[in-house]
Amino acid sequence: MKDKIRKVIQKTYSSGLHTEVHELTSKVINLLGLSDEWANYVDIEVRNIMNKEPFNKTPIEERVLFLPHCLRDAESCEGEYGEKGLICHKCGRCDIMDIVEYAKNLGYKGVYIVPGGSIVYNIMSQNKPRGIIGVACYEELNQAMKKAREEGIPSQGILLTKAGCINTKVEKAEIARKLKK
Questions:
Q1: Are residues 96 and 172 in the same domain?
Q2: For a Cys-Cys bond, which of 34, 101, 144, 173 suits 38, CB 3.0-4.6 Å?
Q3: Are residues 39 and 67 in the same domain?
Q4: If residue 28 lies in a helix (H) or strand (E), which one and from where to where?
């Protein structure tokens, strides 16, 4: 279903008739007859497609990745918090270590494991990335992508597959796909 949604968004966006995020989101939901539970996913994918070209033109070494600290194993995480978020100690009890290492091996400017929006905004203003990938729940991702747009920074978003502020989950394959572009 996700691939079908992406294709319809791309086709509808390419037509040039819908340039507002919420207008395009509503159009795609209606075209596909999707339930309201798909609205957040479609909204983020609309933003991703609208930002795709400028994001892909941004050199990898000028991009940063923001991960939510809720991806960690809350009961056994050995990481410590610093001024730029959680510092992973590579215990291997969650997916964070693999994601961080993959992004760093690709040459990303920075990878940050953060508790929320305000620290993201501080890191953005200090590090001046030219491209951003964010992983989060809809509310956090929506706000961060709006802020990135206001700052003129192309972004890509990945929704958590299991939200809830603790021991969340994400599709690692989706992160890998976005990181490589």
A1: yes
A2: 34
A3: no
A4: helix 21-32
More confident residue, 12 or 17: 12
How confident is the prediction for the chain on average, in pLDDT?
Answer: 91
Note whether 3 and 40 are same-domain residues. Answer: yes
Size of the chain, expressed as the number of residues it contains: 181
- Can you tell me the distance from the alpha carbon of 39 to that of 106, in angstroms, rounded to the nearest whole number? 32
Going by their DSSP bridges, the two strands 85-87 and 80-82 should be labelled as antiparallel
Collapsing DSSP states into helix, strand and coil, what is residue 80?
A: strand
Domain coverage including residue 29: 1-51
Residue of 27, 35, 26, 24 lying closest to 1 (CA atoms): 35
| pLDDT of 16 over the 80 cut | no
Per-residue pLDDT at 18: 59
Residues 22 and 91 in one domain: no
Residue 23 has pLDDT above 80, yes or no: yes
The whole-model pTM stands at 0.89
